[in-house]
Amino acid sequence: RLDQLIYIPLPDAKSRQSIIKAVLRKSPVSDEVDLDFLGNTLEGFSGADITEICQRAAKLAIRESIEADIARQREREGAGMTDDDDDFDAVPEIGKRHFEEAMRFARRSVSDQDIRKYEMFAHTLQTSRGFGDAFRLPENPGAAPAPGVPAPAAPTTQPTPDD
To answer: Which member of 84, 128, 131, 143 has the greatest number of CB atoms within 10 A?
Structure first.
């Protein structure tokens, strides 16, 4: 259970690049892929959106590798070769073409209208639960509160039950 509602904005460029690197940390990515460019391009995408793009690119690379392996297996069988005769060890790399294909399916899950609505909600929530950005401590101790800020309650000197 969360005791507070919080607004988490979409990731900035540095955060998007960190998300990409974290998602792909165990995946072989080709040197031809500029991950920083990719991160800068994905402005407006959520962390989940970015993760989906990276995972789709990885799956495309794996699928391509499997299809190539099947074709190679058929060629070996046609040539009468056995598995021992083949020294080929393909580790699929995620290349530019995989990211380009993944981007064809990329969709932002949060629209600009949604972002404005959430930002307004966050501002309304902040100001409705307290002073918002209107609270200021006085420059001089004992001075009157700033305009629009209620004055502190005067201390009461009523007897307590122990008196």
So the answer is: 131
Tell me the whole-structure pTM to 2 decimals: 0.69
Residue 139 pLDDT = 84
Q: In sequence order, what DSSP letters do the residues of 77-134 get, joined into one string?
A: HHTT--GGG--------B-HHHHHHHHHT---SS-HHHHHHHHHHHHHHHHHTS-TT-
d(CA 64, CA 138): 67
Q: Using CA atoms, how far apart are residues 152 and 137, in angstroms rounded to an integer?
A: 12
| 29 secondary structure, DSSP code | B
The dihedral formed by the CA atoms of 37, 39, 45 and 48, expressed in degrees to the nearest 10: 140
Q: What angle do CA 110, 33, 54 make, to 5 degrees?
A: 35
Cα distance between residue 10 and residue 124, in whole Å = 19
How many angstroms from the chain centroid is the CA of residue 18? 9
